[in-house]
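Budget justification note: compute hours in this period were largely spent on complex prediction jobs such as the one shown. Inputs:
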Amino acid sequence: MSPRILIVEDEPSICENVVYALEADGFQVASAGTGRDALEKLKSQPDFSLIILDVGLPDMTGFEVCKQVRVRQSLPILFLTARSSEVDRVVGLEIGGDDYVLKPFSPRELVARVRAILRRVSALPLPVAGNGATPLVIDDTRCQAVYFGTALNLSRYEFRMLKAFASHPGRVFSREQLMDHASEEPDASMERTVDTHIKTLRARMRGVRSGIDPIVTHRGMGYSLVESWPAAEAQA
Ligand code: CA
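Corresponding output:
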């Protein structure tokens, strides 16, 4: 099945051109003219692979739409903006867009960008689980961990610790090793807070799936991520 793209743009002529170009290239496309319409479509149709999001929408900014989307979903977002002054914000840490296209643009260029993002996202290295399926995906380009399809709200330290776990499922990490992975400038106070970060990580993951604790405590040694996920749970 070809990927589904949502284009959020209030100018009909731009929207039509983009829809036409994407469909001609084999994509399935839906469109929304307002931020609210976009959020409703994303809620009722969770199978989009990417959003093309105009910054200037009539009811809210594309930035606000992006923030609301990212609370629930981790799909890539390509921004359309008319102002080069907005570009830093679009791709910066605050908004975290995956790419942008400056208006005016050629639909062909936009389609090429869409293809590039989808290639990049699908090529992300995934942690290897015992049964070949994993509900935990580490998205390094966005510093985001996605658990059972839900982006976890993690601090920088927590993300890095989880990334270390996911890179070697089953391996036991000592608190000192976790500290090294989590912090660029580790210090003694960080080691003492490893337990706190682990507690937060567990709470965040429990918030997504209450019955599973994928982080294993090894008394006197440290922590590890489960090596294999129960097949039914991994696919849930
Ligand atoms: Ca607009």
